[in-house]
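BUG-411 | component: ligand-complex export | severity: low

The export step for L-homoserine jobs runs without errors, but we want the raw record kept on the ticket for reference. Input record follows.
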Amino acid sequence: MAKIAILGYGTVGSGVFAVVTKNQDVVSKKAGEAVEVKRVLDLRDFPGDPVEPYLTHRFEDILEDEEIDVVVEVMSGINPAYSFSKQALEAGKSVVTSNKAVVAQHGPELIDAARAHGVSYLFEASVGGAIPIIRPLMTSLTADHITEVWGILNGTTNYILTEMAEKGTAFSDVLKDAQKLGYAEADPTADVEGHDACRKIAILSSLAYGKTVDFQQIPTEGITKITAEDIAYGKAMGCAIKLLGTSKKTTHGISAMVAPYFLPVSHPLASVNGVFNAIFVKGDMSGDTMYYGSGAGKLPTASAVTADIIDAVRQTAVFLDWDTSAKLPVETKDEVTVKAFVRVAYSDAEQAKKACNDLFGVVKFVQLESFGDEFGLVADGLTEAQLAKKAALLAQAPAITQVRNIIRMEE
Ligand code: HSE
């Protein structure tokens, strides 16, 4: 009999409790022995909830319990999640988590602690919710040098952008729905400002390329500035808008970015809608592979957590190809080369177009009658530094009244 403890009875914690208790037959069969929840840590009480008999407010009740082999850390934020994980690993317990903030910030140290104590630190659910992505990277694409990993890594923002595009709903109303549905974090800043996707692409990149990628070095922009007008321009160009986490191998390290991108509607990622996530991996031998599924939500995330619990109980955890002592250089934002859509308001159309042509070379303009005195242009092959400089010069040109938005484009 394997006994586990769950740290945190929030959305994911209550999901793990439900999966392990309701699917006990299949979980125990796959684990090779009965798996039971022994303790659940939370500061709150849950009168009348099935968790009541297991509830404790003291972490020591778990740490000092020698019967508990696996600790499931599904709290949010860094502390005390990080310190509880470290203590559990040092006490010889495997730790399973969905907490991407802790994995991105302290992953190398916690992997080292697990290795030193002969236990596992597993985090399949930290990226892509229910989507198997860490296992395929570590156990299937083992013959390849991975050259690119990128995709839609945040369910909340994908849900928001999909609703905005399909129903024309305002950003703030859709965000409230996402919170009600349990997709958005309690503090939605991490989702809508791209921080959550940034941590996830850092974790994937560290595993794909085998060295630590510091999430703090990845240029990151969220979706809060995306408007209905931007989405309309995208449609006119045959594009959907998606918050992407991208990372590509370069000769010295990687080029990575998190930002909203226009994608041609023919691209497989363009039809990934709602809370779904999808991840593209390019290998030098395998070519493109894509992984798709529910990227957030109580039971999908709990399903991935529980699969890790089963691996921890069976002691068959996959080998993590992550050299925790080596850091991979990340291009600075200024160095990243992009294709971008620039939206410009003007007082004189002819002069404004001339100013754009002078700065960006001969460009194609996109104009939507109903938006009045503005147009969009596509600039290609510029570094972010060049793009920012040209956009600043454009904003000062006499016939230009405003540079309204800049949105990157992927092919
Ligand atoms: N808030 C996250 C998302 C949860 O929306 O993707 C899953 O990591």
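Assignee comment: Attached the raw record above. The mean pLDDT is 95.
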